[in-house]
């Protein structure tokens, strides 16, 4: 996926989260392990969000691999440590297709 397409998907995801009552507190947080696309909070729960786009739901969600999720988890641990956070959190995915946007909470493999 091109960077421009990724940026557009992230913009759409942020708007979607905002409409659902989330507050986006950080975007594109990097660590030596990888990147978290969006970090948002709602009702005192921190959401580490991976944004994927594609022509359909299946092709986009399949890009969240065990390896990718492992990198997100390690990066989230660094973020929480760096910011001295001790709160509830979850790992989510926002899937953006031309037809619809899905929010998948608490992703696991």
Offer a quick outline of the entry.
The protein is built from three helices and five strands; from the N terminus they run αβββααββ.
List keywords for this structure.
109 residues; alpha+beta; Trna Endonuclease, Chain: A, domain 1; five-stranded mixed β-sheet; 3 helices; 36% helix; 35% strand; globular
Description:
The protein is α+β, with helices and mostly antiparallel strands. It has a single domain (3-104), classed as Trna Endonuclease, Chain: A, domain 1, CATH 3.40.1350. It is 36% helix and 35% strand. It has three helices and five strands. Strands 1-2-3-4-5 form a five-stranded mixed β-sheet, sandwiched between helices. The longest helix is centred in the first third of the chain and has 17 residues, at 3-19. It is globular and about 40 Å long. 25% of the residues are buried.
Topology, element by element:
Elements (H helix, E strand, L loop, with lengths): L2 H17 L3 E8 L4 E8 L2 E9 L3 H5 L4 H17 L5 E9 L4 E4 L5
Parallel strand pairs: 3-4
Antiparallel strand pairs: 1-2, 2-3, 4-5
Strand content: 25-35%
**What structural category arises from helix and sheet content?**
alpha+beta
Number of domains: 1
Identify low-pLDDT runs: none
Give the radius of gyration.
13 Å
Overall residue-averaged pLDDT value: 94
Helix content: 25-40%
Tell how many strands the DSSP assignment holds. 5
Major sheet summary line: 5 strands, mixed
What's the tally of helices?
A: 3
Give the assembly state of these chains: single chain
Which fold does the CATH topology refer to? Trna Endonuclease, Chain: A, domain 1
Order of helices and strands: HEEEHHEE
Order of adjacent strands in the largest pleated sheet: 1-2-3-4-5
N-C termini distance: 23 Å
The CATH class turns out to be Alpha Beta
């Amino acid at each position: 996926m091109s960077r421009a397409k990724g940026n557009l998907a992230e913009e759409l995801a942020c708007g979607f989260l905002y409409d659902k009552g989330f507050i986006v507190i950080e975007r594109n947080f990097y660590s030596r392990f990888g990147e978290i696309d969006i970090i948002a909070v709602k009702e005192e729960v921190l959401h580490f969000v991976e944004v994927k786009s594609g022509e359909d739901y299946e092709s986009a969600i399949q890009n969240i691999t065990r390896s990718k999720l492992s990198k997100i988890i390690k990066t989230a641990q660094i973020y929480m440590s760096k910011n001295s956070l001790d709160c509830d959190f979850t790992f989510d995915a926002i899937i953006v297709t031309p037809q619809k946007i899905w929010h998948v909470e608490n992703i696991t493999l």
